[in-house]
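Case study.
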Amino acid sequence: MTVMECVGCTMIAFGIPFSMFIFTIARHPFRIIILMTSAFFWLLSLLVSSLLWYAVVPLRSELAFAVPFSVIFQEAFRYLFYLVIKRAETALQSVRLQELAAKGMIFDRLAVAYASGYGYGLISGAFAIVNVLSDMAGPGTIGISGHSQGFFTATAFLTLAIILLHTFWGVVMFTSLDKHGYQRIVGPIVVVIAHMLFSCLTLINRTKTPVYAISLVTGYLLLLATIFYTIVLNGVTLNSFRRSFINVRETTTPLT
Amino acid sequence: MKTMIVILFWIMALLSIVLFLFIISLSNGDHPNPKRVLDNMYIEFDRVRYCVRRLNATHEIGCQSSLSGNTGIMHMIDQETDFTYFMNNFKSQNKYIIVLNAQLFDSSHIDRLIETNKLNGLLLYLKSNTTRPSSFSHDDQCPNNRNYTLYPDQQQQTCQWNANGTGLFFRHFSFPIMMIDEYDDYKRIVEVYHKFNDSNTQSPSCGLEMKTFMNAAHSSKTCMRRNQISHLLIDVEETYCDPVGGLNIYAKFLTYPVMKSTSDTQQISNPIKSRPPKSVILILAQTDGFQFFLKTKIPGQGADQPGSSLITFLSLAHIIGSNALLIAKLKEQERDILFLTLDGDSLDYSASYRIIFDMNNNLFPSTESKYEERIKLDHIHSIIEIQSIGLAGDNKLWIHTDPNAVINQTFINLLINNSNGSIDHLANVRLPPASSQIFLQQTNSTLPCYVLSDAKETYQNHYYHSIFDDIYNLKLNSTSYNQTTDFSLWIKQIVQPLAQSIIQLAVGDLPGNVSLINQQIINDLAYCILQNINCEMIHNLTVTSVGNTFSQFNLTSLPFSINTYPTSSTPTFTFIENVLAYFLRDRSFDRLNMTEDGCKNYTKDVTDMNQYTYVKGYRPSIENDVYTGYCVKSYLKYSQSLSPAFIIKNYDLSTLTYPAWTESRWALIQLRLFVIPTKKHEIATLIIGIILLCLSFIICALLRMSDYKRKKHSNHDGSSDDDENNGDRKQKNIREKSPLPLTSTIAKATPPSKPVCKYGRECYRNNPDHFRVFHHPTTDDLKSTEKLPTTTTKNATKNSHSSKEKKEETTIVKENTLDRYMATTETSNSFKEKATSDEQTTVNDDINTYLKLSNEKLLFALYEIHFPKDLYEFWKFCTDMNEESPRDALKSLLNFELVGPFEILDGYLRSSSTVPNLHLHYRYFYDVPEFMTVIKGDETTQFHIGYY
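After joint prediction, the assembly is written out as follows.
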């Protein structure tokens, strides 16, 4: 009977990312490649985190130990991915881009940052919620041993938050690293701190009946702050933000 | 390069999958806190008892769930009042899984529950481990009385052997029925039930899910037919059901020595010494029973029936086997005492049918050897069948004989006399359910059959064929190895006179008290069969070089349930084989000190029907305990006890000639307790999800649309603010990411040193070489670029500028002297049109910048290609020929005129005020696009020579 719950939670977690995918990524093969590659890098970071978790036997049950390290690894791999993309960029520039450009393979830095952030978010969100969703499909719901009923909905909303956050973190990180001066340092630090904050916030949900409102409200406030920071980083005015959003979606100006 | 990117992409994708699997496998490893969400959602009961489906020729019995399991709201019915409350007050359409006190599990309650149409499953519980219902038997009141019986006229009402039987075992239920018999499980269920279902109806209630899907359906015929259908796609035969049956085990004293011939055995006409008729005394016991509820890995109980009868049977074998005098007499009188256990008789006597079928078809004993005499029904002297004897009221056992059958009254008298009154004869009562019925039926009651049972008219056993027929039923709370109990004393009291009488029946009186049994043997048998088959006695009998098969069944009693051949791996048969072989062994072998190889050598003799087993253990009949090993020589055989219905070729399983029971296979037995979410909660979650999805799609679509509108608008404006911005950003990006920032600085410092790209700031090219060669003005040096003589080409989309401008431009072009000159060459029709329509030249005073350039640079600046050297050499040659007008050097000779770049070299540009579009200069109508005319021939033939 709770197929209904399962479908509902899937749509909560992946509805917005899905529409983002359809409108901004699906038609650009280059962005899909970037998305997949960044997802791959996220998996690599997960592998490293799990190896660490596996190696440090006494702290295996301590989630508070594994989470910060996982955050650090994720951000480290995001930086690695940036370096890889930067290398690939020069390689791609030496290719005759006319042909690729005709197929929409324009190397747009903002789009690359966006797609890589989105890829990070998507895979991380998938890992966060897929096993919960598969458990949800049965006839029952959580609560037999006194757990809060809001667990599934809260998980779905937190997943949505992490997907969007990762997308914007990707943009912030890549854009800042492209810049010169203090912004080159500040951007990544902001991303790491925000990521750490969000991940550690979810640690308070480990009790049987946690107040999900704390992590949800803080999480979404953090999301708003990140969005604001992204806007500031890409041009201050609202108009230019709107344009930047559009540019993200429609970078290929018509070719003559 | 593109293919490389695609390949890279696929490698990445592949690696991702591998990595994903690796991480998953890593996370599946043993971690200290394996908490899945599932564990917080469901409480699973893995010690549950369940009911399965069985089929016969025409019907199916038992229960099953749907493929995905039956779920329902849990409702507990503990007492009769709860039951009536449920019947009267629960009118909603919800499906329930009733949790019912096992006391209330009978036909009337179940029927009423089924009638409500709200029953989706049934779970029985016991309130504690010690209390049990006063009676709990789901066999018929007259067991084993359907079609296959000696008394087809017998009605259930007149036959009350199992007076407490509900008959539920033989009914078909379309829902699963389970039972929890562990007190912990019951406590958990009750705890959760009171937590959720007792409070108000708004909160979520808890439900149960039962999965007992059965593969077989309809009837044995259907499922056996489906067994043989192989699935073409996967080429695997799937089995849906297995025929009921195990092994019929039989043992006797050593065979008669066969007349061996030293000559070729082929020449012996009849090597089998004929067996005299009426020479075999058959002693029967059953080894199977059934229970409504099965339990994984826990054997079915059957302490009274058939456990107690098997203990008696084996004790009897011990007494008779240890009597050397008897064996000698039996040889002398050519008689045999055959011990036979039947497996499958609790369901329509299929084992008995099989034995009789084998006897009639010369298949008994089941052997290929022609040196062995077959036993037929005619050879049977009499049948002594031991039924349950554990619950004798007044310490009295009854010999049942069929009122119409032939009996040997002297044997009965012997038995009564020997037993000192503990055994009595029931002459006028019909036989209780016993295998003898089938032997009598098949021989038209000409065979004397004696059935020993503790039942006079009804069973004392209130748990006949149920899970409660265990040691507690026999009033044995707990026995330990070699402990004398009332039960084992009772067995001894029975088995000694029985053995005495059988010996007397077989060979007549023997001197002395021949039928004594050590009490310890019975104690051990009782302990091994009823308590723990992994006992010392069995260790001493079964440990071979392969190992001991019983150690895995530690602390379990001997299982007596429905077996399916050959799939079920019950230890019962191994147990009986070993014990029977040991008790009926050749005692002369005990003294021999034999090795394992020496023991095995005996088996090579094809004329020897005995089996030789080497057992590691304390040698029997030796005073000092030596743990070495010994060879057991005995006559023991077995055959499968499938009903003849499954043996006869082309037998129609729907006919009722033979019983045709099958047991369905099943994959998963699961009982889970969980919380059902409230409808409100479910719908709310779904709606939030749908709203979020739709909203995000709408917002994205709106943004996309507004984007298009804005673009259109800006295009109409002509200002192209957005485009400029776009270009700006792109230019910036190019600058930032360009590996050659040097280009731009050079361009800034010396703008005239490099020709300006004709697309200027809007150039789309990314090739660094292009940037190196051409100057691209940035916003900073916008002013300077505007001064530069560039031909700006606007985008095709932006060509829809105002027509006024166009006309003005055209007039300007027409005023050009170059154009005027071109117009004179009337052959170039295309030139005029194209020059006027497509190109917009800017009036520019700075044409002199070009004039400063030398010939080669000038041509490159104008044409943007490097002309080959021969052009200049040819020009020089022509200048040498005709200094005044080199272009006409060839005119007089060949009527050729040098045009195109030669005109530029001739200094034609000096007379021009604007830079013409030279790409269309002398373009003929049929020229390919890159063709550049340099020599023009006859006007009428339009012959011209050019570079391509």
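Observations recorded in class. The two ends of chain A are 56 Å apart (CA to CA). Residues 2-251 of chain A form one domain. We will return to this complex in the next lecture.
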